[in-house]
Known about the structure:
Elements: E1 21-32, E2 35-46, E3 50-54, H1 61-68, E4 78-86, E5 89-90, H2 98-104, E6 105-108, H3 119-129, H4 136-149, H5 153-156, H6 169-182, E7 187-191, H7 199-212, E8 217-221, H8 225-231, E9 234-239, E10 242-248, H9 249-254, H10 259-265
Helix pairs in contact: 3-4, 3-6, 4-6, 6-7
Bound molecules: adenosine-5'-triphosphate and magnesium ion.
Adenosine-5'-triphosphate binds at residues 32, 37, 55, 57-63, 75.
Amino acid sequence: MQQTAVVETGVGAQAEPARNVKVSAENCSVFYGDKQALFDVNLDIMANEVTALIGPSGCGKSTFLRCINRMNDTIDICRVSGRLMLENDDIYDPALDVVHLRARIGMVFQKPNPFPTSIYQNIAYGPSIHGLVASKSDLDEIVERSLRRAALWEEVKDRLDQPGTGLSGGQQQRLCIARAIAVQPEVILMDEPCSALDPIATARIEELIDELRQNFTIVIVTHSMQQAARVSQRTAFFHLGVLVEHGETDQIFTNPAHDKTRDYLTGRFG
Length: 270
Ligand SMILES: Nc1ncnc2c1ncn2[C@@H]1O[C@H](COP(=O)(O)OP(=O)(O)OP(=O)(O)O)[C@@H](O)[C@H]1O
Ligand SMILES: [Mg+2]
């Protein structure tokens, strides 16, 4: 006999927009040697949203961020336990190609770090090595599209052959963002991407982050509460390696569930 699923629609029920989990962490713990830096973190990161990771220095924000694209693999003494999933793929599956994973989950660092090559080559390198292009005109198109999306095209279109390192700090960071999006990642991780920038350059990057979430899932570490409030839809507060709470940014900022979160947000520590 066939089973029939009963779907209760409910009269007048509002259709909720679909919320998809892009990355999920289950009991994620991290050790550096015998020192534990993260304790059983459980966190779902939603697709096409910006999630802000906040908390005092040393609480494990960067450590958690680096778990997501296995950048911690590059630290000899680092060991990760628990489970991290990128949709249906186990991020720590030994059979997974880490280079491919990092193309799916790109990263932007605190200090802009363009390659010591031309602006064009900075963007073209990733798509070339990942085999995303068939011809020079494909590549030209990707370079232009990535620079446009990173709101840098107009400023650099006449000097694509000049070194990326010759740009201003804010431009270099937008170049790094363009480089990250050129390989069409699904997730972009940003570790304090504005901390080396002035307020004007910061505002541009924040605008950009807001636009990018249409196409990407973004996780950003920030020390600026204002920035977290401005750019993110969800916020996760860490303290001493523990994820104290997470939720909608508005709720975390106006009505946190934990005193520790409130104390941090009101500047009582950190
Ligand atoms: N490479 C490493 N080797 C050993 N310990 C580390 C390493 N990286 C981080 N740690 C330790 O792990 C803990 C969490 O550090 P992490 O860098 O993740 O904190 P954070 O929240 O990003 O801090 P900050 O806001 O200062 O960047 C800290 O106690 C730190 O000393
Ligand atoms: Mg950090």
